[in-house]
Amino acid sequence: MKVGFVQINSAFGETDRNIERVAQLLKSFQGDLVVLPEFFNTGYLFTSQEEAYNLAEEIPSGRTVKALCELAAREKTYIVAGLPERSGSILYNSAVLVSPQGYIDTYRKMHLFNEEKLWFAPGDKGFAVYDIGHCRIGIMICFDWFFPESMRILSLKGADVICHPANLVLPFCQDAMTTRCLENRVFAITANRTGTEERGGKSFLYTGKSQITGPQANVIHRASETSDETGLAEIDISIARNKRINPYNDLFEDRRTEFYQDITR
């Protein structure tokens, strides 16, 4: 199957403009699955609860999800995209999965980063895996990568590809994802953003370098640090379904779970 990402410099608060930029980049995408960055539609650097609330949308009734469903139908592809979600009075850092037939489900970020804790509630839905026909996918968002349990549980549940919307500011993730993919024998699509946001006396520089990473610790495709672009690569899902390392070792069968209990307390 063919998988890819969109990397953009989202303009803060300009939802329609950001959606249109993604639509332009996805014209004639010709892939089966594409991942967009975290908060691709709004920008990231919120300065108040009120600001976050006003830019967040209900899912799936909000305009962003409706636009994503239209894009998925137009390009005949599955889309995973990050956006702020409003559920009653509660806000979540979320990602949606949509198909050419419409909205499928929402993942809510489990591990909140830095001042996200001021505006958003931690995810309450756990980690789910979705069969999209070509493969089985799992979703995590940005800082979730820092916790190896995120990719491990998705892999144990059968995910072949981890979809990873991100707004990365730390310099570690792109290189670390090679280890995350190796230790779980899965593919990952990290869709990062670019540019600098300066708001409320703070400044965030986003690292770009969105990438598609393979089960053998290989970077299949990596974007630049600064440009708006798409990435597309053909991957062999059967590689992710073979957890055997050699004739004597299987990545999952060799786990000694009876001795792992202490780390889950």
Output the keywords.
single chain, 265 residues, alpha/beta, Nitrilase/N-carbamoyl-D-aminoacid amidohydrolase, six-stranded mixed beta sheet, 16 strands, 23% helix, 30% strand, globular
Fold and architecture overview:
The protein is α/β, with parallel strands linked by helices and 265 residues long. It has a single domain, classed as Carbon-nitrogen hydrolase (Nitrilase/N-carbamoyl-D-aminoacid amidohydrolase), CATH 3.60.110.10. It is built from seven helices and 16 strands. It has helices at 15-25, 49-55, 63-75, 116-119, 148-156, 173-184, 237-240, and strands spanning 2-7, 33-35, 78-87, 90-99, 102-108, 129-131, 136-139, 161-165, 187-191, 196-199, 202-205, 211-213, 219-222, 229-234, 244-246, 249-250. Helix 1 (15-25) runs parallel beside helix 3 and helix 5 packs parallel to helix 6. The termini are far apart.
* Gap between N and C termini: 39 Å
Architecture in CATH? 4-Layer Sandwich
User: In the CATH hierarchy, what is the superfamily?
Assistant: Carbon-nitrogen hydrolase
The radius of gyration is 18 Å
Low-confidence stretches: none
